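In response to a reviewer's request, we include the raw inputs and outputs for one of the modeled complexes. The two entities were modeled together in a single run.
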Amino acid sequence: MKTKIIFFLFILLLGVLWFFWPENSLSRLQSAMQSATDPVQKEKLMAEREEKFAHQRALLVEQSVCELASDSAVLKAMKKVPRHQFTRPEDIEKAYRDHPLPIGYGQTISQPSLVAYMTELLALKPNDRVLEIGTGSGYQAAILAELVQEVYTIELVSELEKTAKQRLSSFYGDRVQVKCADGYYGWSEYAPFSAIIVTAALDHIPSPLIQQMKEGGKMVIPVGPVYQTQELILVTKKEGGVIQTKSVLSVSFVPFVHKEKK
Amino acid sequence: MVTGFYLAVLFVISALVLAYELLLMRLFSITHFHHFAPLVISTALLGFGVSGSFGAIFQSFFQKYFFRILNFGLYGLALSFLLGVALSQTLEINFFFLFWLPRLWWRLVCFYVLLLIPFLVGAQLIVLFFMQFRHKIHWLYAANLSGSAFGALFIVMGMFWAAPEFLLKLLSLLCVALILIMPYPSRKEHLLQLGGGLLLSLFIVFFPVQLEISEYKELAHFLKLSDTEILYQRYSPECALHVVKSPSLHLSPGQSLNYTASLPPQYAIFFDSSSPTAISSFTDLSQMQYLDYSTQALAYALLAQKKRLLLMGAGGGTQIALGLYHQMEQIIALERNNQVIQLMQHELAEFSNHIYLQPQVKVLHTEARHFLFSSSETFDLIQVPLTGGESYSLNENYLYTKEGLVSMMQHLAPTGILSISQWMKFPPKENKKMFASLVEAAETFGSKALSLHFVLIKGWNSTTLLFGKSIFSTEQIVRVKQFCQQRHFDLLYYPGIQREEMHQFHSAGAHQIQLEDLSALLSPVERTHYYERSRFFLTPATDDRPFFHYYFKLKTWPLVLKGFRHHSIFLGDITPLILPLTCLQLFFLSGLGIFLPLLFLKKLPARQRLAPFFYFMSLGMSYMFVEMAFIQKFILYLGPPIYSMSFVITGFLFFSGLGSLWAVRFPAWVPFFGIIAFALIYLFWLDTLFVMASFTSLFLRGGFAFFVLFPLAFFMGMPFPRGLQQIEKMEPDFLPWCWGVNGFFSVISTSVATFLAVYLGFSAVLVFALLLYLLAGLLYNRFS
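The model returned the following structure tokens for the whole complex.
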């Protein structure tokens, strides 16, 4: 009987070891960086880490993002923006995996391929003025800022707005304007917008947002109950203000992508 | 010798443990997602099984230090009740991230352990009595069951008048009360325990317990915003209500994109911290015009006469306002939650312009199906509005069953219209299933020329399906077209629709509902083939299988798994995955719990172990199967599910307790025969009995429910103590192990019963239960 118990404990131990085993060289690098005291050494390690992240980012774009998005400008922006600087420190190693990550306050940083796809749907031109509803970490706004001159982004949760404002101003200065407000009313001072991107699911499309769209403008909005199937809807404002919608992609909960592109 | 005192202690412990279980279910429904409570708590309940395993391994120790263990166990129970909840609240888990953030697994394991401890301690104390007073098993089992019945009743009543945090502390304090009244051997010890008990009481009273709502629930999100405040909170065993005031509330389900005016000021009622429903403030009905810009308003444009409206769900009163906006002469609105009615009639009356108290409006506190069952009134319009709630695959919905739809049709006036609004789903499986269900219901109802009775329209995220008791006239069809054109809604079906008329404004890409789909569903021959071809389970739900939102066929599972491999969850709806996941973890952990103690018990020939194993397994599973099947059967009779659950659980446990006392007075075959005979009678004739006894008073219906349950539950209380008595005579060391087997399979059976009900129906669950009782009856002689 003792042998059986020892065997059982041994299996349990193996499980625990497997669970705690460092995942990759990046985690080791991360630990080394944290323990390093010499600034030169730390800088060197940091450069090494950034290089690894850049490599991972390129792989992510080539292997996953391009399955959904094909616009070269969007893919270039995805390769450039350091997603790891928009995640929480504990999730930094998972920044270049194609899935969403929690950022606190019940919000998430979206799945990279979905960010790219939603951006592509807006068919942006460099002179466009874009409004984003739901800044979150600021990652989507950063991608937009790589493509257009003016980005306006609204966040409801003040803590998230502050962090995102800090990050975005360090990267893009005044080109990205962040404010803490109810996105329902849009940002009338800077309206009309060529494109609006909404990153929070709603039970109806707010009429102020429709009014703030330019004729010929586009809006992308996920629709459906949170944490169940959602649908990406592309709203187009035709001449004369006629609104048309098209369901373009099934996304799920927070939000995962259903691979079949329509 | 067991004394009345110890029986009373066992009674109270059993009551506390069951009350804690029900309280925990309620707490988790408020703070976490719907999926989370059954997943975590079913695992925690394994504590019942584990107590048997521990009892088997450490039996001499338990017997030797009975009193000491009982004493310490009560301290442990009081503390673990409180700390289990308090500490688990510090572990923030978003279930959906578990799939790719392994660091969260540890949190889940901690969750399990924290919640398992109170059940383990409680069950360990119960099994302790069975080991100590093993010659009076039937008395112990009677105290155990009747205590549980009392606990269920106590906590359900308690939830009406106290917040869950308070009830949690109350349960802990009751444990302390038990400590204080124990018969200690000396005065010194008594004083010591008194001091300890008082200290613990102070700790419990002053320990801060506050419900931490998961940050992923809508209420938590709103509460983070400035200028948001909770105006009123109400608790009941059914749900927790929060009335919230926030400038960020803008609720208008299914609103047309053409509507440009602003919404009136709103409050929202959150049900269990999610599914906000609007309460709009208005002084003049013209302010509610926005409601006329949703697909739900279509039926009003077609009504021949605007006399009587039946509204399935009064909620925040917006749909009542829509009825008043359209000058309906009489509105009967059904609301299952009495606290919503109380709030709307009193605290929120002024804000909502006394909408519940308007002379044309009558709000009834009842379940929709129960109203339809007991009323003979007819209506010009029966409106099933869009609800704010999410639909979960395993939610039972008796309004959307074929029988439910037929009964709504029966309550339509000759030119009456039934209007059912739903969220647009992608793929539109629910929308198609509703169309199919209504068509089949109309067939059963006896409608001729089926294709002339339906109209279906679509907004950008909602659909409304109309069934006319008379066929729709050409003039009505013209009004449908005008309604849609003005609001930019799409026509999906009307008698004579052309393909090019569909999807003018809102394209659903590959998920478009095609005319061919609807034509196939209208044809009795093609419909069956269509059901077979579909990737989803579109066959209408029935009262026996009331899972309207369950779409997964067995052949859908490979697609789900394929989705997982591609870092995507097929269709997003993960609820169908929860059930097998729960079953898997329960089977694995139960297997360990059952077989590990065998290493410590003396070797017996396989046959001698197998007979009791299967006997107690059968009893554990069949008892829960019968209980679950009856809860379902009583819902239609008793009204809101909470009544059904309370009556059935209390009735079963109490009468089984009585049965246990009488167990020895009957020959061995009698209980099995009684169970099978009564269950068969109820399987075939329960509905007839309910029709014969359709009293209006809930108390009379409850009394009749007890009358029906009594003989069955009475006999069901006998096999378990008789089995334990036999084990005690033959192999006393195996007694706790058998208790554990029964405990493990009781827990497993709830998930298995749901699985069976989804695929085969609740009647099948009952049939399985009978087969298991038959098996137990046959096995009884094998080891006696």
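As requested, we also summarize the result in words. The two ends of chain A are 60 Å apart (CA to CA). Strands of chain A lie at 101-104, 107-109, 129-133, 150-155, 176-180, 193-198, 213-223, 229-237, 243-252, 256-257.
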